[in-house]
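2.7 Reproducibility. Because tokenized structures are sensitive to small changes in the input, we list the exact sequence used for Quercetin 2,3-dioxygenase C-terminal cupin domain-containing protein, including any N-terminal residues retained from the expression construct. No trimming or masking was applied before prediction.
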Amino acid sequence: MVSAKNGEAPIQINQDTNFYVIELDKDKETEFLMGSDRQAYIVQIEGSSEINDINLSERDAMEAVEENLKIKALENIHLLVIEMKKA
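Resulting structure tokens (single pass, no recycling of outputs):
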């Protein structure tokens, strides 16, 4: 969706930041791999999910630092993930 200048997303910004949208159907799972020295802010746009054993409902948010995310959709979901260099 959005990436740093050296990224491959259609929209590029002059920051070391990437924006991702994750859509999953109910009971599906995926993993978001985060590199070392990276962090992410995750917003539950629709539905509810379990991310690394934390339950999120619509409009909830969480932060993750230097950890991969195991995401399970408890219902159909949309997530926004803003990933950036660790502060």
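The mean pLDDT is 93.
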